[in-house]
Amino acid sequence: MSLNLLDMLKDQVSGPLANQAASFLGEDESAVTKALGGIFPSVLGSVIGGASDKSSASGIMDMIGGLDMGMLGNIGDLFGGGASSVNGLLNSGGGILNTLLGDKMGGMVDMISKMSGLGSGSAGSLMKMAAPFLMGIIGKQVAGKGVGGLMDLLMGQKEHVAKAMPSGMGSLLGLGFADMGDMAGKAMGAVTGAAGVVTGAAGDVAGAAKDVVGSAGKMASGAVGGAANLAGSAGKAASGAVGSAANAAGEAASTGLGWIKWALPFLAIGALAFWLFTRGGADKITGAVGDAVEATTDAAGSAAGAVGDVASAAGEMTKDAAGAVADAAGAVWGKVDATAKAALDKVTFAAGSAGSQMNEYITGGFKGDSNFTFRNLNFATGSAELGSASEVDNLAAILKAYPAVNVTVNGYTDNTGDATKNQALSEARAASVMGRLVAQGIDVSRIKAVGNGDANPVASNDTAEGRAQNRRIEISINK
What we know:
The protein is mainly alpha-helical. The protein folds into three domains: 5-174, no CATH class; 206-331; 338-477, CATH 3.30.1330.60. It is built from 17 helices and four strands. Strands 1-4-2-3 form a four-stranded mixed β-sheet. The protein is globular.
């Protein structure tokens, strides 16, 4: 089993750092502890992503080599050294995070702030405090092992990071391996649910079949019992009649009543008639038994037919359920949160803004173009740092009101400069908008951020005006 760096950080760093940092920042210690639980796996995930080859791993080794290990040796002494000592820690951490995260740092700060309840300023400062301790732990484990040892160590941390990283952070940071745990959990939940439905349906069919067969058995048993009772009654009657005739003959003989000889023929005829009647009763018995057998056969056939009917009904129920699910999916598309909708109704959208377009699209029954361009969204030149974000906040208000709507944020640049840098910048800007939406309370699972570089221009890149139009953020509703 691979070494778990996150467990080491929890045992050696998290407690003392949470205590000292909470006091320094003026925050609740439990909130700081919760934030560190998200910061360490997120930053470690970025380290893993940043050491994908020997060249980049060598850069991580240089970063570790530049740390002041003495400063990290005693957390209490470090914070006890006053503001200058802590500022040194913050500067060191800031350099590490800028190298690892670049323009994604703002989105990460927003997510950590949201999950922990810390203010964004405290969340950012805590990230800077935590980063050097993480790198210090890594440094101790790879001392003397070189770049290869670092890469081996980090590759063994992927599973641990995937389990501990906050939901959606992997997508924000572009770490494909980090959200696998959530995906597997959802898939297992879906499989378990489906298995439960199938098991329940099978149990219903089996129970119905059991009831039908049981009824058939009772019918057959009753018919046979009735036949047996009828046969017994006929036998008793025949036996009684013959016995009576024999007794009468014997009595006549013993008393010497001569007249009886004249009565014997009539007695014989009566006995014969009774015998024939008894045979007729036997035929009735045989017929009753035949009827019982026929009834049993019919009941068995009915049971088989009923089982088939139940199975057919189960199939129809499954089909109907699938149709109902599809119908429900269509209905939930326009699901409304009444409280959030009331707040949305008070929002004033700028004409032509992405929020205005999107709100009209939804209230219009989701008809027409589902792609909308931000008109008043500004970034610092060459940066993913948001300037005015009111349009993003308006979009968040819409998403709160319509909780079934999911979106994709697409970032674009013009074609000037290096294409690789433009691609990275478009990704970072899309992630920054996504981070702002998450910070406003939108579940990260409802948002996807995509960078498209200078692809799909909407105007000519030959003019300044055209290039300005191509540098854009678009939002689209996922269907």
